[in-house]
UniProtKB/TrEMBL annotation:
Protein's recorded name: Flavin reductase family protein
Sequence similarity: Belongs to the non-flavoprotein flavin reductase family.
Record's keyword terms, sorted: Oxidoreductase
InterPro entries: Flavin_Rdtase-like_dom (IPR002563), NADH-dep_flavin_reductase (IPR050268), Split_barrel_FMN-bd (IPR012349)
UniProt cross-references to Pfam families, sorted A to Z: Flavin_Reduct (PF01613)
Chain ranges of the Flavin reductase like domain: 22-165
Matches recorded under SUPFAM superfamilies: FMN-binding split barrel
EC id: 1.-.-.-
UniProt-recorded Gene Ontology molecular function terms: oxidoreductase activity
């Protein structure tokens, strides 16, 4: 059975108000990593991460259509989602900055496919780049998790436009 829905009404608010309302939802913070064909590492901070399915193991995250890293994430076969721990706000800020080498001075190991797994994270997921869905001004990436690990600790969260920790 197929359903047809009428189009949405125009928003009854502006983008500033919408962003303020969204900021009231606390999210975890991740750094997504991959590499360029020449071996240069690429990474960015993202709070748009969610589980999708246990079988098969799927997760999703989203990236702005105009992001400079969009071309590499769109074509690479794999990426790693690093879940930041409560004491890693500096990493979140670093990977959100526009600097030449975000990995300079950052401790990491390499995944099975040779991608950075940041040290001290509470969990990581090495994903096959399964599918992408353009929606609005972002692209939703669905990754099929091939490997993951966990080291439980307080989480870094983003709420009200600020980083904070779940640490009591």
């Amino acid at each position: 059975m197929s359903y047809s829905f009428p189009g949405a009404e125009p928003p009854a608010f502006d983008s500033t108000h919408f962003r303020q309302a969204l900021s009231q939802f606390a999210t975890g913070v991740t750094v997504i990593t991959t590499r360029l064909p020449d071996g240069t590492f690429v990474g960015l901070t993202a709070s748009s991460f969610n589980s999708v399915s246990l079988d098969p193991p799927l997760v999703l995250w989203s990236l702005a259509q105009g992001a400079s890293s969009m071309p590499v994430f769109s074509v690479n076969s794999h990426y790693v989602i690093n879940i930041l721990s409560g004491d890693q706000a500096v990493l979140a800020e670093r990977f959100a900055m526009r600097i030449d080498n975000r990995f300079d001075g950052v401790d990491f190991d390499l995944s099975y496919t040779g991608l950075p797994i940041l040290k001290g994270v509470s969990a990581w997921f090495e994903c096959h780049n399964r599918s992408r869905y353009p929606e609005g001004d972002h692209v939703i990436f669905v990754g099929e998790v091939e490997r993951c690990d966990v080291s439980p600790k307080p989480a870094l969260v983003f709420h009200g436009g600020k980083f904070t920790s779940t640490r009591p």
